[in-house]
C-alpha cells in the first residue's frame, strides 16, 4: 500500500502548539528580563517622549532566542512521518514501500536555522557596537550562502518566466543562472535592512514583521490541503508563474502539487512561531513602549523572510509583501548613498507642547549638487518631501528627512505617535492586499494560463 499523500499534516498541530508556547514565553520574559537588559547597559531613550527614563533595548534578542529554540524543538515533529517510516522499515512488513529519509528537507531546515542564528548574532553585535551600515551590509549576504548552497543542491530553478508582451524578444523563459543567486543573496540584505531603516516610532518594527509574517502565512495557506472539508483545488492556484518557483509543474500535476505543499508547509512552520513572538513583543512595544526591539529583531525577522522566500521558492511573491519598505528604501537612497546629509536619527521631530510629531529635517551645510537638487525637486513635486529654499538664489538648504514616516507627516500633517504607527500599519496591510492582487489577479494577464 502507498503511504498517505500529505504525510506532514500532523506536525501542523505541534507547530500551532509550540507557537502558542512561544507567545506565552515571550510575553512573560520581556518585562521579566527588562531590568537585566538595563543593567547590561542595553537601554535607549525614547526620543519621542517627554520623559527620559531608560527603556530596555535589543529585546528582540528574547524574541529571536524563543523563536530559534522553538524551531529547534520542533525538528523531530516536523520529521515525525519519516521517523515513523524508518521505524516501520526496521520491522519487516510485507507490501510496504518505505521511502528514504528526506535528507534534502533536513538540510533545508538546518541551513535555514544556521542563517537565522547568524542574522541574530549580527543584529545583536550591531546593537552593542553600532556597526557602520556599509560594514554590515555584506554580512547577511555571507549568512545566506548556506541557503543558496542548499538551493543549488536541490537543483533549484534559476529561470524567470517572461511576461507575455516581452516574449517576442526574450522567449518564454530566461535562465538567469548565477545572477539568480546574486539576486537571492541581495534579497537577504534587503529584507534585513529595510525593516531596520523603517523604524524609530513605538511599534513600527514589530508591526511590520508581524504583518509580513501573516501575509506569508495567508499565501502558504493557499497552497496547503485543508484538513477540513474544503480542499483548495491546487491546480486552480498554480498559475504558470509557478514554473519560476521551482519548475514543479513541468514534473506533472501530482508530483508538482505535493512538492509545492511541502515547501509551503515548511514556510508555514517557520512563520507561525514568528507571528507568535512578534505579536507578544508588540504588546510591550506598543505606545508607550516598555521595550525596544533593537536591530536584533529587525535582522532575525528579515532573515526569516529571506529564508522562507528562498527555501519555499516564492522570493518574488515575498518581495511584493515589502512594498512600503521598497518605497522607504527608494526614498531613502539619496541619504543612504550620501547625496543628502543623513543624521544619526531620522525619526520625526517631537513637539513637547502639543505631543505631536512633525517631519524632521536634514540641513545642507554646502549647497547640494545638481543631481541632488533635481532628485529633491522631483520628490517635492510628487509630495514626498518639503523643501526649504533660499528666497533669492533658490538654492535648497533644508529638506524633510527622506523616510516614509516623514512622508506620511508631510501628507497628513502633524500626527500623534500612536496615529502615525497606525498609518504605517494601514500602508503595510494595503501593500499586502495589492501584493495578492498583483500575484494572483494580474498574473493571469501577464502570463498565459
Ligand atoms: C535606524 C535609522 C535611523 C532611525 C533609527 C530609529 C536609517 C539609515 N537609520 O538606525 O534614522 O532614527 O533606526 O530606530 O534610516 N527609538 C525610539 N523609539 C522607538 C524605537 C527607537 O526613540 O520606538 C530610538 C531609541 O533611542 C533607540 C534608538 O532609536 O535607542 C535605536 O536606534 P537604532 O536601531 O540603533 O538605529 P539604527 O537602526 O542604526
Ligand atoms: Mg535599528
List keywords for this structure.
single chain; 449 residues; two-stranded antiparallel ribbon; 18 helices; globular; binds uridine-diphosphate-N-acetylglucosamine; binds magnesium ion
Order of helices and strands: HEEHHHHHHEHEHHHHHHHEEEHEEHH
Percent of residues in β-strands:
5-15%
Tell me about the largest β-sheet: 3 strands, antiparallel
Work out the radius of gyration. 24 Å
Helical content (DSSP H or I, runs of 4+): 55-70%
Which molecules are bound besides the chains? uridine-diphosphate-N-acetylglucosamine, magnesium ion
**Number of strand elements:** 9
The low-pLDDT segments are 1-8, 228-256
The computed structural class is mainly alpha
Name the average pLDDT: 87
| End-to-end distance | 36 Å
Q: In order across it, which strands form the biggest sheet? A: 7-9-8
Number of distinct helices: 18
Shape: globular
Amino acid at each position: 500500500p502507498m503511504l498517505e499523500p500529505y504525510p506532514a499534516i500532523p506536525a501542523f498541530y505541534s507547530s500551532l502548539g509550540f507557537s502558542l508556547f512561544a507567545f506565552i514565553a515571550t510575553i512573560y520574559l520581556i518585562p521579566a528580563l527588562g531590568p537585566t537588559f538595563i543593567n547590561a547597559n542595553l537601554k535607549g531613550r525614547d526620543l519621542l517622549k517627554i520623559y527620559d527614563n531608560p527603556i530596555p533595548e535589543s529585546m528582540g534578542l528574547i524574541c529571536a532566542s524563543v523563536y530559534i529554540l522553538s524551531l529547534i524543538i520542533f525538528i523531530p515533529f516536523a520529521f515525525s512521518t519519516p521517523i515513523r517510516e524508518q521505524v516501520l522499515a526496521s520491522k519487516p512488513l510485507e507490501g510496504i514501500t518505505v521511502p528514504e529519509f528526506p535528507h534534502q528537507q533536513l538540510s533545508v531546515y538546518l541551513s535555514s536555522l544556521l542563517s537565522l542564528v547568524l542574522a541574530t548574532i549580527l543584529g545583536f553585535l550591531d546593537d552593542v557596537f553600532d556597526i557602520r551600515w556599509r560594514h554590515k551590509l555584506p554580512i547577511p549576504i555571507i549568512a545566506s550562502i548556506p541557503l543558496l548552497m542548499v538551493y543549488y543542491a536541490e537543483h533549484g530553478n534559476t529561470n524567470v518566466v517572461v511576461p507575455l508582451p516581452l516574449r517576442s524578444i526574450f522567449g518564454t523563459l530566461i535562465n538567469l543562472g548565477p545572477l539568480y543567486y546574486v539576486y537571492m543573496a541581495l534579497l537577504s540584505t534587503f529584507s534585513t535592512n529595510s525593516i531596520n531603516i523603517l523604524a524609530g516610532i513605538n511599534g513600527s518594527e514589530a508591526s511590520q514583521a508581524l504583518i509580513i509574517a501573516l501575509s506569508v502565512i495567508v499565501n502558504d495557506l493557499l497552497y496547503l490541503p485543508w484538513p477540513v472539508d474544503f480542499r483548495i483545488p491546487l491546480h486552480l492556484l498554480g498559475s504558470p508563474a509557478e514554473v519560476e518557483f521551482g519548475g514543479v509543474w513541468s514534473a506533472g500535476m501530482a508530483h508538482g502539487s505535493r512538492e509545492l505543499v511541502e515547501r509551503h508547509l515548511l514556510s508555514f512552520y517557520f512563520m507561525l512561531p514568528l507571528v507568535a513572538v512578534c505579536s507578544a513583543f508588540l504588546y510591550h512595544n506598543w505606545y508607550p513602549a516598555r521595550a525596544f526591539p533593537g536591530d536584533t529583531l529587525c535582522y532575525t525577522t528579515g532573515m526569516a523572510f529571506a529564508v522562507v522566500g528562498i527555501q519555499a521558492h516564492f522570493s518574488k511573491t515575498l518581495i511584493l509583501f515589502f512594498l512600503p519598505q521598497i518605497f522607504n528604501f527608494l526614498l531613502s537612497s539619496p541619504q543612504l548613498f550620501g547625496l543628502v546629509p543623513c543624521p544619526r536619527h531620522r525619526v520625526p521631530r517631537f513637539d513637547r507642547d502639543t505631543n505631536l510629531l512633525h517631519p524632521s529635517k536634514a540641513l545642507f551645510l554646502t549647497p547640494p549638487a545638481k543631481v541632488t537638487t533635481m532628485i529633491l525637486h522631483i520628490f517635492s513635486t510628487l509630495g514626498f518631501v518639503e523643501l526649504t529654499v533660499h528666497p533669492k538664489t533658490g538654492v535648497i538648504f533644508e529638506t524633510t528627512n527622506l523616510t516614509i514616516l516623514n512622508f506620511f507627516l508631510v501628507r497628513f500633517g502633524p500626527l500623534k505617535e500612536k496615529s502615525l504607527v497606525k498609518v504605517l500599519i494601514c500602508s503595510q496591510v494595503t501593500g499586502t492586499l495589492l501584493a495578492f492582487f498583483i500575484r494572483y489577479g494580474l498574473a493571469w494577464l501577464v502570463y498565459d494560463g
